[in-house]
Amino acid sequence: MRPTPRTALAASALALAATAALVLxxxxxxxxxxxxxxxxxxxVVANGGFESGATSxxxxxxxxxxxRTGQSAHGGGYYAWLDGTGGTHTDTLSQSVTVPSxxxxxxxxxxxxxxxxxxxxxxxxxxxxxxxGSTTLATFSNLDKNTGYVQKSFDVSAxxxxxxxxxxxxxxxxxxxxxxxxxxxxxxxxxxxxxPADSTRTPAAPAYTVSLSSNTAGTVWTGHESATFTNASAxxxxxxxxxxxxxxxxxxxxxPITVTNVTGGTAGALAVSCTALPITLxxxxxxxxxxxxxxxxxxxxxxxxxxxxxxxxxxFIGNALPVLAVKDGAGWHLxxxxxxxxxxxxLAADFKVTLDHPTTLLVPATGTSxxxxxxxxxxxxxxxxxxxxxxxxxxGPFSKISGTSTAGTPINVYSVSGISSANAQSMLxxxxxxxxxxxxxxxxYPYGELDAVIDNNFWFGGMEYPGFVLDLVSTTALTxxxxxxxxxxxxxxxxxxxxxxxxxxxxYATDLALGSTGTNCWNSVSWAxxxxxxxxxxxxxxxxxxxxxxxxxxxxxxxxxxxxxLIGDTAMANLLKxxxxxxWYGVSTTAEFKxxxxxxxxxxxxxxxxxxxxxx
Length: 616
What we know:
By secondary structure, this protein is of the alpha+beta class. The protein folds into 4 domains: 42-190, Jelly Rolls, CATH 2.60.120.260; 196-395, Immunoglobulin-like; 398-490, Neutral Protease Domain 2 (Neutral Protease, domain 2, Orthogonal Bundle), CATH 1.10.390.10; 500-611, no CATH class. Strand 18 (266-267) and strand 19 form a beta hairpin. Helix 2 packs across helix 3 (500-513) and helix 3 (500-513) packs across helix 5 (545-567). 45% of the residues are buried. Residues 5-36 have low confidence and may be disordered.
């Protein structure tokens, strides 16, 4: 997405083995240690998800643990809501926990959402304190507000063998509410020799089959979707999650994306503000086994010139199809939706999507499309796409022009009313040049045709999907979104936790395509705080939204220009080409890119990463 141009492991307390004196004839006394107490890995917080109400918890009032409207759970239906009154107030929540003495590792985690009416960016008026025993683990405040839940993690191994109080205290001052919302609290214990989590990404090789029919305006779509997938992990897969991203644009009581009549598994309660649906499989899948789930799907497009919205007669339908969440060594990736950038993280998949719509509507879409006659006055558009991370489409009485890039990529430009013929032709020319420029640097464009949908009413500069982009009339924005076909589309990444891996790389690619060398651009860098880093996640940027574009886009691409100047133009070009090739349809991480960059030069890059605040 392009922003609009307008705008320390603690010491473990281990049980000492008792000694026993054994006296033998004609031999000195000796001591033999008893076997160390064994650790059985366990989770010691009771009712950490609050699904049994306040059971096992002590709360300052009966309204702390709740399922009332105004906030939502991270998982299930209940959560703990501290404060949020807008007046002088204190809420507390606590539970006595026993940390086993035979375990070398103990980790406390909880999910926290903070919203506030405070407008200050410098003063902590309202606070939440997390403690274990007499130790304060952290203090959060209105300054830490976020748009969704963020997981917090603390090493509490030093409390092994102790029974202590786990306590949360929220305090508000006399005005302007701050709400501290907790859910899914856990304290996991393990032996130091416990093997690492399985880092294999799964479910793998998804294949989606979708059949939808629209109303006359193209704003309501109903039908069926199925998803076939394989467990790539050595760990059995007992459930999957569907991401219903566009429920961000509605409410849990009236969600724009509905999934009903699930087959192939049992649907659970919507989570993460109704953007994640767990489905328990009837039998856990062993490594290499496959399964299929199916469901009826309803999509209601809201008003607004957005990546999911309609602008007059024109509907834009991005992130509407439910897709499988990713599970790896970190567990399930169930991050919240962000409107400031992207949260979308999915593995490359195949799609076959059939869209039945009025013939008066043109339907540009991801993949290669074929139109056939439907029932009276209707057309059936069948789009097929392989190895793509998502599927998007639009519907409306667009004006369409087409062309082919010099390297042979078919390009279609769809314009809403009000876009002049000259501007449409300019965008077609830009697309033809951009797709070939990026392909020459990073590898041939693999998605068949490329559709660009143009509307100057978009509040953002542009938005990328595989083979399909939304843009203003802007050479820079369109070149950027087409660059995302490689950096996000082909070379995937976790867009919520590592947004720089697609946005910084794409803005760097855009500069190269437009002939900009980024000379001296790092000279203008001015950090807002010591916490600000190019590699920060969207959880950070949602709390510091005014800095997101500056740091991730501008500082990020300037860092890559600096890397090119340090290792040389040829080495940098070879690095990015080979990195794209080795991660083709895969997932990029900061650690992997740093390793590849270091392998491309004899220069020690340690200080470079530090200076440019690239961590990971």
